[in-house]
Design brief:
With about 250 residues, the chain is of the alpha/beta class. It contains eight helices and four strands.
Length: about 250
């Protein structure tokens, strides 16, 4: 995105007067949520979710009149705290944080708010928070891995028989949108699950009997990732976001 385009969407580069004027004209407020301190294997940075959240927010803002707030980079990520550097708030703290930010955007006059969420464990706390806002009809919770087009794309390009984190799918997406942030030579597949695959609970670095055993932090087969797969997957996510945004909540 060019500097000119950035200045039209990122509130961090605008004055408060410019933000107020855009909101008054009906600009959508986008709040990206993506961890900035959460392990993503040995081949991708801790900010992998943040990179995705900001990139997809920027792409969505090209399609609609929108203002993008700074990404919320701390959240509820309890499954990853065994890996140094990976931080998690409690669910209640994260829920309160989302609620206060959303209420602030409502007070500023935002007519429509889009929460753009890259997480899975964050879904329930965000939904609880948005259920408590004063104007819930004006808030949308868009989940980048939840759309039908994305699921169809995974079925189309995915080769791994198991995976859920820093795997073939997520690595492919980052290869497409930020290839300079991936060191694919360092990617390590996790051992095949002994039973049905991952279950609720944290990933484990050391417990070889755990169904969530992931010594490198990756759960799945990132070595199968390619940029070509990522282009298909990221295009599907964008199509889902645009379709979801255009569809009223029911």
């Amino acid at each position: 995105m060019t500097p000119e385009k950035r200045s039209q969407s990122l509130i961090a580069s605008m004055t408060w007067g410019e933000v107020a004027a855009r909101l008054a004209r009906g600009a959508v407020a986008i709040m990206p949520i993506g961890a900035g301190a959460k392990q993503h294997g040995l081949h991708m940075p801790m900010a992998t979710d943040q990179i995705q959240a900001e990139w997809f927010a920027g792409q969505l803002a090209k399609k609609i009149d929108a203002l993008i707030w700074p990404a919320l980079t701390y959240g509820y990520y309890p499954a990853f705290t065994a890996y140094p550097g990976s931080l998690s708030l409690t669910a209640s703290t994260f829920e309160a944080l989302v609620l206060e930010i959303a209420e602030g955007l409502i007070e500023f006059g935002a007519r429509e708010i889009v929460i753009l969420n890259t997480g899975l464990s964050t879904i329930a706390p965000i939904d609880r928070a948005l259920g408590r806002v004063t104007q819930p009809s004006g808030v949308r919770h868009l989940k980048i891995y939840d759309g039908p087009r994305f699921r169809a794309a995974v079925a189309q390009v995915g080769e791994q028989s198991y995976g859920s984190h820093a795997d073939e799918i997520e690595t492919s997406i980052l290869l497409a949108i930020a290839p300079e942030r991936v060191d694919i030579a360092k990617a390590q597949d996790s051992p095949p699950p002994r039973s049905v695959g991952p279950v609720d609970g944290p990933l484990s670095r050391t417990d070889t009997t755990s169904p969530n055993y992931a010594p490198s932090g990756s759960y799945g087969r990132p070595t199968l990732a390619t940029r070509e797969k990522g282009l298909i997957l990221s295009a599907a996510i964008l199509a889902d976001l645009e379709a979801a945004f255009a569809t009223p909540d029911t």
